Amino acid sequence: MQKVIVIGGGVVGISCALKLQDEGYEVTVLDPGKPGEGASWASCGSIAVSEVVPLSKPGTMRRAPGWMLDPTGPLTLRAGSALRVLPWFLRFAGNARASQIDKISREISALTRTALADTQAFLGALGLSDLLRHQPVIELYDSAQDLEHERVFHDARRALGFELEEISGAQAAELEPSIASDFACAVVLKDWRSVVDAKRFVVDLHKVFVERGGKTERVGAKGFVREDHKVTAVHDDKGDAHIADQFVIAAGAYSRRLAAELDCPIQMEGVIGYQTSFVDPGVTVEHGLIYAKGGFGITPYESGLAIAGSIEFAHLDAQPNWKRADILVQKAKRVVPDLETRNGERRFGRRPLTPDTKPIIGKVPGMHNVMLATGHGQLGVTLAATTGRLVSEMMTGRQTEIDMSAYKADRF
Ligand SMILES: Cc1cc2nc3c(=O)[nH]c(=O)nc-3n(C[C@H](O)[C@H](O)[C@H](O)COP(=O)(O)OP(=O)(O)OC[C@H]3O[C@@H](n4cnc5c(N)ncnc54)[C@H](O)[C@@H]3O)c2cc1C
């Protein structure tokens, strides 16, 4: 039986590990932390299938300077990070051209188009269908003008086959009575779903992986043993070597360092986001909610109502700035005025974000037996099952349904 080592036990790594088990591989996951403790656990948990327009879209570029000057704004750059981020940012800005926005949207939608079906099939086969909620997600707008700014992107999503329905603020309040009554309008993202719990999602997947004979080692990968164009083993941070036939690097934002060890420079920032969840929020919320103006989402998890968002560029080893999580909680009262904000539990994660918002899925250039499955940015939960399927198809030499060249590591 061929052995595979998956480096990283976040939602992407565990999904790859499970799909590779299906193919008959003996799979070991290396992760110094608990499964899903990285970005996966801090997420809004949306299966955000129509989130295909890249982040470099014109609205972002126009508003970014104002956001950065506002200490409570949704986007920030830590002191000392500017020079390091510059090459990433220049490439990001280059992707703001209309032709690029259109091209990237199509490339991301080629992945997200099947994401809900992939997730449903994946969970169903594992007996975990209860991990998905049935309700769509609602995006809320203060004014018709705010919606008007976004309409061009909503139309682009519709043109790609996704379903979005504009409704009035009053209709939104009928669907979700806990929200403020003065939203002007809303968009129901009809083909989105949410996971029932960001933490349980990964924990349960990991449980099944172990029940099916998968191994997890609580170590971090540090370097590789190479022979010609192959890796034969990975060294961990305790000095041990782990031998395998195939390797998958799925270490989220930390994948960049591991890829660099294999002479594969990828452009990817670990963009910090925060989540605070409330076990007793004092309100009932049934749908995932997005308040884009505030830069956050609200998701009803089994473990509590979660407020998650914020975009913070900082060094990979930087400590979290919990004030940013608190700002989101204050702003959440705009959406759910009766929210009780006692005893919130806070966490943070680093979204692995490429300058073109596309993930990196495919072989490390020049290496026959190492694949990258990373760079999912704000779409890691959405694309985990799809990525697992594609990685398993590629590793077994099967033809993928879609052209994978758009997600190659050497595009940087
Ligand atoms: C606030 C916020 C909201 C979000 N909302 C959504 C959403 O609604 N929908 C959506 O689809 N996505 C969302 N995301 C994005 C999503 O969470 C990420 O894209 C996804 O979690 C990335 O998964 P991952 O497995 O690649 O990385 P991670 O979950 O970060 O996992 C990487 C793992 O690799 C391990 N690791 C690191 N270094 C090493 C090493 N050297 N050796 C071994 N293991 C290592 C880490 O310990 C970690 O467990 C959100 C993210 C945030 C922060």
Detailed description of the structure:
By secondary structure, this protein is of the alpha/beta class. It folds into two domains: 3-40 and 201-267 and 357-411, FAD/NAD(P)-binding domain (3-Layer(bba) Sandwich); 51-106 and 130-193 and 268-353, D-Amino Acid Oxidase, Chain A, domain 2 (2-Layer Sandwich). It is built from eleven helices and 20 strands. The protein has helices at 11-22, 58-69, 82-94, 98-112, 115-125, 144-159, 169-175, 198-211, 255-261, 322-335, 380-395; strands at residues 3-7, 26-30, 46-47, 75-77, 137-141, 164-168, 185-189, 193-194, 215-217, 221-227, 230-236, 241-243, 246-249, 269-278, 288-291, 296-301, 304-313, 345-353, 360-363, 370-374. Strands 4, 5, 6, 7, 14, 15, 16, 17 and 18 form a nine-stranded mixed sheet that branches. Strand 19 and strand 20 form a beta hairpin. Flavin-adenine dinucleotide is lined by residues 7-13, 30-33, 37-40, 42-46, 48, 220-221, 250-252, 254, 258, 273, 275, 308-309, 349, 351-352, 374, 376-382. Flavin-adenine dinucleotide (FAD) is lined by residues 7-13, 30-33, 37-40, 42-46, 48, 220-221, 250-252, 254, 258, 273, 275, 308-309, 349, 351-352, 374, 376-382.
**Classification by helices and strands:** alpha/beta
CATH topology of the largest domain: D-Amino Acid Oxidase, Chain A, domain 2
Distance between the termini: 35 Å
User: What characteristic shape results from the CA principal axes?
Assistant: globular
